[in-house]
Amino acid sequence: MADGLLGIAASGLLAAQRALATTGNNISNANTDGYNRQRVETSERDSTYTAGGYLGNGVNIDTVARLYDNFLNTQVRTSQSASGGATAYNQLTSQINSFIGDRSASLSAPLQSFFNAAQDVANDPSAIAARQVLLTQGDSVAQRFNVLDTQFNTLRAQVQQTLSSDVDQINTWAATIAQLNTQIVSQSASGTGQPPNDLLDQRNLLLEKLSGKVDTSVMTEADGAIDVFIGNGQSLVMGAAYNRLQTQPSAYDARADDIALSSGGDQGAIVITQALTGGEMGGLLKFSHDVLDPAQNSLGRIAAGFALAVNAQHRQGSDLKGNAGQDFFTDPTTPTDAWFAKQTNGGDARLSVAFDNTPATATTPANTPAQLTASDYRLDYDSGGNAVLTRLSDNTKFTDNPAGSGAFQVDGLKIGIASGTAKAGDSFLIQPFRTPAGTIQAALDDPNQVAAAGSPSTGPGDNVNARALVNLQQTKGMLEGKASFQGAYNQLIGEVGVKANAANLDNTAQKNLLDQVTQSRESVSGVNLDEEAANLVKFQQAYQASAQLIPALNNTFDALMAAVRS
User: Fold this and answer.
1) Which of 424, 397, 425, 421 is nearest to 411 (CA)?
2) Nearest-angstrom CA–CA distance, 319 and 466
3) Which residue, 203, 279, 379, 398, has fewest beta-carbon neighbours within 10 Å?
4) pLDDT given at position 201
């Protein structure tokens, strides 16, 4: 009886002591990221049969369990991924929305000032001062195009830099998760097989951080290790092994980076840029594809259309010395860096890409700047050597004309083979609108060169061509003849504004959802200090009560010994 009572007291003391220690650990880690509160789980020891019935033998300590809900944690990771993507997308989209819509920084004011200056020249075509102002305003318009384009390029560089940083961070976390897998499997298999709660918490915290960078899916193995997948099921972590992300030059434009997954073997890295969604990386890639590229292309389209129209009209006139009008702006007809050959091309073909201005005929429609779409294109040569041009904004395909020539006149563009020969399987990325806004420059520096006159023989009072330049402001020469230059820019502002507003709403909704699921998880796994304080009292009393069993046992034993002596 004494051994039994002593054993019961000892088991109670130990259980209360472990519970107190666990409660203290909970309190200590109340503000530790990733910590899941723990609880000592106990069970009743097997009873001993006696003639008087079954007598209890105290308590067993089964385990120290972490209060962890896998369903809620999966929801948190999913929301973390969605919120991370929405935040990155919203922040960058709002930046574009701010600078293209800012009255002091947008294109609207310089455009208006340019046409006002042209009107002043039309009012007094012989005035050198008015001509000088027109040159100055022309230079101002070009510079504003340049500044806006620089803002786009700065954002593009920021996206690339952040993606590169994310790749490094993800690689570090993947390596750590693989290491934790090894430790967790080892410690779970050793001794009594108790779960290593601290290691599980650390791994779970890394999974959450990883989800904030990119969308992930997780599979738990029977031995306690986990596998982590990204993209379209590409494995990032497989138990104790892990693959590495890396940035590498794009298949077409070496100045741009793709994201690839490398296993370190002979298979080489697999490009997964298009497959990555969610998290900060997904948000950045979505921003580049849905907002940055279309917006910069739209600005480039306006710059090209504006320069082409002003140059064409200015060449129709005569300057103050009776000379034929020259280009007012640098000729944008052949944009720089407008095409990129795929690195794996077998042929040596070089493309020619130019803005076209072919009027309609009885058999063919017009192919002018009004038809420019602001889309990128891809020219592919299939296995039969046939050239197919794809407009990437809507995947519309065009065949060359004449067949086999590799020549296209579509969407206000003239595309062809300038030199060399393309082979089957060759491919080219065409980006005609990426650079015009950054390269446009005023071409004239002498006010006498302003071609205000409609004829070289009419003298300095002729303002025919100046009035024609003024009329360009209202001419609907953009968006298939539906918008002026200012109208096209207003449409750009409107499209980005709509996306920015939607991004803001989505970001707010995703943050709220993340807060909700995080609170739900905290209600299960978080440390409630009031509850822990109550537990301290409860377990302390349990310890004191168990301790009272020992003097009771002594008294019982002394009484028994006294009875035997008597």
Assistant:
1) 397
2) 10
3) 398
4) 96
Bond from prior residue into 551 cis (ω within 30 degrees of 0) = no
Nearest Cα to 458, choosing from 326, 320, 325, 327?
320
Residue for token pair 């609207």: 108
Q: What is the pLDDT of residue 1?
A: 44
Query: Could you tell me the end-to-end alpha-carbon distance of the chain, in angstroms, rounded to an integer?
Result: 21
CA distance 88 to 416: 39
Residues in the chain: 566
In this prediction, residue 266 carries a pLDDT of 65
Q: What are phi and psi of 509, to 5 degrees?
A: -65, -45
- Helix/strand/coil percentages in the chain, nearest 5: 50, 15, 30
Helix axis angle for 128-189 and 293-314, nearest 10°, is 160
CA angle, corner 19, sides to 16 and 23, nearest 5? Answer: 140
Strands 244-249 and 396-399, how do they pair?
unpaired
* 328-349 core/surface letters (b: 16 or more CB in 10 A; e: else): bbeebbebeebbbbbeebebeb
The residue type of 564 is V
Q: Is the dihedral of CA 339, 345, 350, 355 positive or negative?
A: negative
Q: Across the strands, what pairs with 237? A: 228, 242
Q: Cα 520 vs. chain centroid, distance in angstroms?
A: 28
pLDDT tens-digit map of 147-186: 999 999 999 999 999 999 999 999 999 999 999 999 999 9
pLDDT of res. 265: 67
- d(CA 227, CA 277) in angstroms, rounded, equals 18
* Mode of pairing for the β-strands spanning 48-50 and 53-55: antiparallel
Structure tokens at 191: 């001794």
CB 397 within 8 A of CB 378: no
Three-state DSSP class for residue 561: helix
Stretches where the chain sits below pLDDT 70 are: 1-3, 191, 265-267, 566
Q: Which residues contact 273 (CB under 8 A, 6 or more apart)?
A: 258, 259, 260, 285
Q: Which residue has the tokens 């990129």?
A: 340
The full DSSP string for 442-470 is B----GGG---BSSTTS-TT--HHHHHHH
Which of 374, 411, 394, 392 is closest to 297 using CA atoms?
374
For residue 61, count CB atoms less than 10 angstroms from its CB and return exposed for 0-12, middle for 13-18, buried for 19 or more: middle
Pick the closest to residue 463 from 112, 113, 120, 110 (CA basis).
Answer: 120
Instruction: Indicate the SS3 state at residue 79.
Output: helix
- The CA distance from 566 to 233, in Å, is 83
- pTM (predicted TM-score): 0.90
Phi, psi values for residue 59, rounded to 5°: -130, 145
Name the residue among 438, 440, 439, 437 with its Cα closest to residue 489.
437
Phi, psi dihedral angles at 413 (to 5 degrees)? -120, 155
**153 three-class SS:** helix
**Residues ≥6 apart with Cβ < 8 Å to 550:** 6, 9
